[in-house]
From TrEMBL, chains A, B:
Domain of life (superkingdom): Bacteria
Keyword set, alphabetical order: DNA-binding
Source organism of this protein record: Aminobacter carboxidus
Descriptive protein name: AcrR family transcriptional regulator
Pfam families, alphabetized: TetR_N (PF00440)
InterPro entries to which the protein is assigned, alphabetical: DNA-bd_HTH_TetR-type_CS (IPR023772), Homeodomain-like_sf (IPR009057), HTH-type_TetR-like_transc_reg (IPR050109), HTH_TetR (IPR001647)
Residue ranges: DNA binding: 32-51
Any one Gene Ontology molecular-function term assigned to this protein's record: transcription cis-regulatory region binding
Every HTH tetR-type domain range: 9-69
Entries under PROSITE patterns matching the protein: HTH_TETR_1, HTH_TETR_2
Length: 240, 240
DNA sequence: TGCTACAGACCGCCAGTCGGTATAACTGAC
DNA sequence: GTCAGTTATACCGACTGGCGGTCTGTAGCA
């Protein structure tokens, strides 16, 4: 086979990109190392030259995601003109504008699928460790401004983040919904759920009811409209 | 090899029991089907006579756990003498008495270990579908009694259950703590966390602060005291 | 000339398959 | 009631394909 040499950073990025695609599409376990190197056009030996194990590749992918999330956050935190409450809402809605609904539903569809628990968990854990302290800073600011209450900003931050990550079931329902009736029902259920989650955040942080909102209005409907094409036999996503 | 025939129900139970032990001890992926049948003294063919796949065995195990949880709940729900608030606390503390601390820490240690995400997730999901409606009934009762507030008892129930399942990190810290100082710090952190989670539940359900409590006093210390013996090299549970 | 980035045959293990079989349970003849 | 014949059930274990990971190299750039 022709031997093609690239800059290590480029190769590493290629592997991460291919792994990201394949893990999302097929699930972490179902996507083999051979699949990944096949996509990049690399040998087994070269792969293990870059990553000590398949798990390390997953870890690197999670770190990458966390790093990107952190970068997105810096922008919010760096804006001193915003009140803590405004920052909170900006935080909760990051990447959840109606314009990014298609992107969001695609991500959800792959990451919340049953065969992707491992991928989801890794991402979540790693991103969480980056996000929690950032959100805690917002909560502390809110406390100083007198708009928020919390005994322990870091713990409160983790609880709030947790509430943001419970969308699993509702997303699955949204993806599985067949027919206009079921779809509009799923949308309504999803929005009720998001409203309740927002309320829970308000209560935990001592904000007036209706202050925190996880998505901007119309986001769920936009996501539903942008659902990835499902196979004609139905049940793309197994129930449960 | 001698051929030993048993009643199918007995064999099935044997397999479930062995799988429960091995999955907990080594993790779902690390415990092979060969390990399980080795423990039971059965052949590969016989195993696949009972379960169509290793995953189906995990599913059956999760169902079993859910069924047991449901049975435990019936007792609480069947007691009409208890107020909804009392039922809530009984619910939150099920299996969390100081007398059951040893059992609890052992369960946590295995189920929250990094290599057991799959096992944890399955159990959690299955048990959740059983628990959420039960807790929702308690919340409805509380609403009728005027002690609780909720727009949607089922969603509130799911949020409350979720809050009960966030103990991961703190448990890991508790298990990893080396030396008296670190241990007492981990205990304190755990208790602060549980207190905050209790507060969050209070707020979500419109209860006075300090009403809901996830464990009885002294439970965390009792758990810490009952930690399973860790290997002398330290770091039984990998960080994170 | 030496080190870095690569190649690919190879290994052990694992979930799952398959053809076969011992044994218990049932049948009917006497 | 018992005993050969038959069937269905519960079981055996060699085998397969594919997986993650290893190892011995080696081409190509510096």
């Amino acid at each position: 086979m022709p031997r093609i040499v690239r800059h290590p950073e480029v190769r590493r990025a290629e592997l991460l990109a291919a792994a990201g695609r394949l893990f999302s599409a097929r699930g972490y376990e179902a996507a083999s190392v051979d699949d990944i190197i096949g996509e990049v056009g690399l040998s087994k030996g070269a792969f293990y030259y870059y990553f000590p194990s398949k798990d390390a590749l997953l870890e690197a992918l999670a770190r990458q995601a966390a790093e990107r999330a952190r970068a997105e956050l810096e922008a919010i935190l760096a804006a001193p003109a915003m009140s803590a409450v405004e920052q909170l809402n900006a935080f909760l809605r990051r990447g959840r504008g109606t314009d990014r609904a298609a992107e969001a539903i695609a991500t959800f569809a792959s990451i919340f699928s049953p065969e992707n628990i491992v991928l989801y968990h890794r991402m979540h854990r790693t991103v969480m460790t980056v996000m929690a302290p950032a959100l805690a800073r917002i909560i502390e600011k809110g406390r100083r401004e007198g708009s928020m209450a919390s005994n322990d900003p870091l713990i409160s931050a983790e609880l709030v983040l947790l509430l943001g990550a419970v969308t699993h079931g509702a997303v699955a329902d949204l993806l599985a919904a067949e027919g206009a009736d079921a779809l509009s029902q799923a949308i309504a259920a999803f929005e009720r759920r998001l409203a309740e989650q927002g309320l829970a955040v308000d209560r935990i942080l001592g904000l007036p009811d209706g202050t925190a909102r996880f998505v901007e209005p119309g986001f769920v409907a936009a996501m539903a409209a942008a659902r990835p094409n499902r196979n004609p036999l139905g049940a793309t996503v197994a129930a449960g």
